[in-house]
Each structure stands twice: as structure tokens, then as C-alpha cells.
Amino acid sequence: VQLQASGGGLVQAGGSLRLSCIVSGSIVGVDIMGWYRQAPGKQRVPVATITSKGATSYSDSVKGRFTIARDNAKNTVYLQMNSLKPEDTAVYYCAANYGRIVWGQGTPVTVSS
User: Fold this and answer.
1) Distance, CA of 37 to CA of 46 (rounded, Å)
2) Are 50 and 69 contacting, i.e. CB atoms less than 8 angstroms apart?
3) CA 57/CA 60 separation, integer angstroms
4) Count of H helices and E strands in the chain?
5) Cα distance between residue 87 and residue 85, in whole Å
6) CB neighbours of 102 closer than 8 A, spacing ≥ 6?
7) Is the separation of the CB atoms in 17 and 9 below 8 Å?
8) Using CA atoms, how far apart are residues 70 and 37, in angstroms rounded to an integer?
9) Residuewise pLDDT in 10s, the chain (113 residues)
10) CA distance linking residue 87 with residue 61, whole number of Å
């Protein structure tokens, strides 16, 4: 199984981006999928997760601004990011729990002030 993340880029503060994570295999049976981010010099931290039943959770820093969604028919997980702030600058990774965590390659997001 491979995860391919895309959609990152450079955006001004207050702008929006939508990240996509396409999975090479089916995600129907994957209970938890998520987005994580790693800022320069910092550890990778969770941003948002979504279960197979559609239950979502968010870190406090993005709650109300980011939305995670999954499309099982397209084997894709999305992260809609609105009202972006410079502190959201990081490399964003998608992950899927197939009994072991499988990571995507990361897509960089830079928010300018």
C-alpha cells in the first residue's frame, strides 16, 4: 500500500488549501486515517483523524479551521485548510492504520504573513 499526498504550496495568511491523499489500496476497512504535520525543527504531530464511521478529531490548534474527510470510493482522504496562519507552515503527512501505520511522502505547506 502506498499513500500519495498532494495539494501543498505557498499561500498567504488567511488563505485556503486542500490536501489530498490517494491510497493505492482500498481504505474501506481502514479504521483510522489521519493527517499529521512536522514544522521545521519540531516533532511530527497529529492534525486531524477520521474513522471508518466518519468520526473526526482535531488538534486544538486547527479546530474550526480544518476539515478532514474521506471518500472510500476514491480511496482518498482530504484535508481542507481554511484561515491559514503562518504557524500552520509545515510538511503535512497522511497516514493510514493497516494494523501498522503507513505514511505518505509529505506535502509542504508554507503560509506567509
Assistant:
1) 6
2) yes
3) 9
4) 0, 11
5) 5
6) 1, 2, 3, 95, 96
7) yes
8) 18
9) 999 999 999 999 999 999 999 999 888 888 899 999 999 999 999 999 999 999 999 999 999 999 999 999 999 999 999 999 999 999 999 999 988 999 999 999 999 99
10) 9
